[in-house]
Design goal:
Shape of chain B: globular
Oligomer: heterodimer
Distance between the termini of chain A: 37 Å
Radius of gyration of chain A: 13 Å
Largest sheet of chain B: 5 strands, mixed
Largest sheet of chain A: 7 strands, mixed
Structural class of chain A: mainly beta
Strand content of chain A: over 45%
Distance between the termini of chain B: 38 Å
Order of helices and strands of chain B: EEEEEEEEE
Number of helices of chain B: 0
Largest interface: A-B, 28 and 24 residues
Order of helices and strands of chain A: EEEEEEEEEEE
Chain lengths: 114, 113
């Protein structure tokens, strides 16, 4: 099976712009989670989607949003970008709603806000 | 969520066993211990998980204390490719699909030739 794929891999945006990141989970996986990773804060949970519904949300402002499509592909959107949004954004999928063998992470999208 | 505490960094000689400790003193009865690792510029990779019994797979062994307040990940014969940041996390299982996971800053393991 192909692994979790994320596009684009690298992105440079300007403050105030918005950005959409895409994640394709492993075939058959219905749960998709998003994480932000920065050197100072480590890996922080953003939100999780299962069957097109957001089930859990981390402590991020409303500028961060996401959605999941019927084929389980997911997108996350960040509006009104700030310099502090520069980070590696990771997507992870798991087979059902349960994490039996853990989540499978994609390679991430490196977002740089200038 | 239960929080975990790990040393910031550790060194290990190549070929020796790497023992990575994790403290999770506030773990709940329905929470599992998971270990992931992240090699530079890649996404985290699942290693192993357990509830209360010791576990072993092709990558590592997990030793959980009887009171479940701490655990140790053991890489039996560390290689240079094991150089990575290792994360210990706890999360509930079978709780309606609760997926929220809290990663700390992990332990940076440096395997030395």
């Amino acid at each position: 099976k192909a692994g979790v794929t994320q596009t684009p891999r690298y992105l440079i945006k300007t403050r105030g712009q918005q950005v959409t990141l895409s994640c394709s989970p492993i075939s058959g996986h219905r749960s998709v989670s998003w994480y932000q990773q920065t050197p100072g804060q480590g890996l922080q949970f953003l939100f999780e989607y299962f069957s097109e519904t957001q089930r859990n949300k981390g402590n991020f402002p409303g500028r961060f949003s996401g959605r999941q499509f019927s084929n389980s592909r997911s997108e996350m959107n960040v509006s009104t970008l700030e310099l502090g949004d520069s980070a590696l954004y990771l997507c992870a999928s798991s087979p059902t709603g349960e994490v039996n063998r853990g989540q499978y992470f994609g390679p991430g999208t490196r977002l740089t806000v200038t | 969520d239960a929080k975990t505490t790990q040393p910031t960094s550790m060194d290990c000689a190549e070929g020796r066993a790497a023992n990575l400790p994790c403290n999770h003193s506030t773990i709940s009865g329905n929470e599992y211990v998971y270990w992931y690792r992240q090699i530079h510029s890649q996404g985290p990779q699942y290693i192993i998980h357990g509830l209360k019994n010791n576990e072993t797979n092709e990558m590592a062994s997990l030793i959980i204390t009887e009171d479940r307040k701490s655990s140790t990940l053991i890489l039996p014969h560390a290689t240079l490719r094991d150089t990575a940041v290792y994360y210990c996390i706890v999360r509930p299982m079978n709780s309606g699909g609760y997926q929220k996971v809290t990663f700390g800053t992990g332990t940076k393991l440096q395997v030395i030739p």
